[in-house]
Amino acid sequence: MGRPVTELQHTTGIARHGRLKRSHAATGLLRVVALGLAVILVGGAAIAAFALWQFSRTVAANSIDIDIDDADVAPPPGIGSYESGFNILIVGVDNDSAQGAAYGVRETTLNDVNILVHVSADHANAVVVSIPRDLVVAHPECTDATTGEVYRELGAAPVNEAMGRGGLPCVVTTVEELTGLDIPYAGLASFAGVVRLSDAVGGVPVCLSEPVDDPKAGLSLPAGTSIVSGATALAFLRSRHGVGDGSDLARISSQQLYLASLMRTVRGDGTFTDLPRLYALANAAASSISLSTSLAHTDTMVSMALALADIDLDRLVFVQYPGTTEDPDFPGKVVPLQGLADTMFAKIAADEPFSLTAAPPTDEPLVAGPPAESPEGPVKTDAAAPPATPTPTPEALDGLTGRTADDETCAQVAND
Question: Membrane-crossing residues (predicted)?
Answer without folding.
Answer: 29-53
